[in-house]
Amino acid sequence: MYKITVDGKTMVGCNHDAWLTTPKIWLETAKHKNEYGTVFTGSREVSPSRTTPQSGMNTVGLAFSRLASYYPVQNNPFSNRLKITSDADYLSEILHKCATVKEVKKHIEQYDHSFFLNDVFIYIDSLGDYLIVEPYKLIEGNNPNYVLANFCPSITDNKQARKLERYRNGEDFLKTNKAIASLDFCTTLSDTMSVCRNRNGDGTLITSIFDTKEKIVSLYFYHNFDTLVQYSLTDELSKGDLILNLPEIFPKNAEFERLVNFKTPSNTVALRVFLVLMAGLLALISFALFISQFRKNKTTSLSLKSVVVISLLNLILIAYIFVLITNQGIFYFDVPYKDPTSSLITASSYTPFLLLISFIPIVIHTRNRLKSDKTKFWINSTLVLNNMVYFILVLGFGYWELYSFWN
Known about the structure:
Shape: elongated
CATH class of the largest domain: Alpha Beta
Distance between the termini: 27 Å
CATH superfamily of the largest domain: Penicillin V Acylase, Chain A
CATH topology of the largest domain: Penicillin V Acylase, Chain A
Low-confidence stretches: none
CATH architecture of the largest domain: 4-Layer Sandwich
Structural class: alpha+beta
Number of helices: 13
Radius of gyration: 27 Å
Order of helices and strands: EEEEEEEEHHEEEEHHHEEEHEHHHHHHH
Strand content: 15-25%
Helix content: 25-40%
C-alpha cells in the first residue's frame, strides 16, 4: 500500500493480494450519533453475511489498510487490556468511531492488539498523518509519501524491505516521479505495485484507491487496470447499507475465472478429505507389507528391500500430503516451491518428481510379482492398490502443475 499527500490532498492506495474468490465492497451507514459511515473492501468471509475488512475509508477521510507480516512472539505487554474477539467487528468499529490517527491511537491503546501477530496495519487521515499498528508497537508518521508492504517497520530496515519486489517497485516509482494527488498517478503506482504470477495468473485481487478529500473510492479488479469502478461515499451512503460482489460489477475476467475453477485442498473440503484418505491408504499399505515379512513362508512374501523402498516412498508422500493440505502457496507460486520459513517444506517440493521417477520401476516390479505364482493374492492386491494411489497422486500433481518447473 501507499499514501501520498500533495497540496493538502491525501490519496491512499491498497493492493489486496489473495487467492480468495469472494472479493467484495460494502458500505455501512453510521448506526449511532457521533459515528461515521464507512466503505470497506475485502475478501475473507467469516460468515455468509460477514466479510473481514482489508481496507477502507470513512466519511471524514480516515483510511486504513491491513497487510500480512511477521513478528516474533514476545511476552505480551498488553495482557490487562481489552481482548479482541472478532477482528471484523474490531476493525469496523475503528472507522465508525475515529476521525484522525490520534483518535485511532487512543482507541487501539485500549486493546490487546498483539491479537494480530501476523498483521501490520496503517491508518491515514485526511491531513496525511499516519499510524502504523504492529503487534507490540504503534508508530506515528507524517511523511508526504509513504510505502508499506508485508513487514513491520520497527524490525525491518530498508535494505530488507527492498527485497520485496512490490515494495521496491513502489518506492522506486515515488523516487523517480513527482507525486501527484490524482487518480491517474495513483492508478499507475498501484499497477506498478501489483502482481500477476506466472504460474496461474493469480495475484492482486482488489485494488482500492481512496480519495480522502473528495471521499471517493476507485476500484480495479484482479490486476486489470483497464476497467475502473468508482463510488462516492457520501452519495452511496445516502441510499443505505450496500454489499456488492466485485466479479458482478466488473467485466468477466478470464484469469479470475481460472482462479475460481482451480481446485485445491485449501478451497475444496472434498479434496482435503480425499487426500487424507490417500495418506491413510498409503500408511495401511506400508503396514500390511511389513506384516508380510513376519509370515512363516517367506517365499510367498516380498523382499525386505522392496518393502523398505515402497514404505519409505509412502512415508514421504504422506508427509507431502500434509504439506499440501497446510500450505496454500504451493499451488500458486513457482515450482519447485520455496518456503521462506522452512527448508523441509522447500525440500518436499521435489516429492512429485521423486514419485514420477519411481512410478515406472514400481509398476514394473508389481507386474513381475503378478506374474509369479509364488506371491500371495493379498500381497499382489496390496501392490496394485498402492500403484493406483500413486497414479491418482501423479494425476493430481499434474493438475496442480507441480511438475511445471519451467515456470
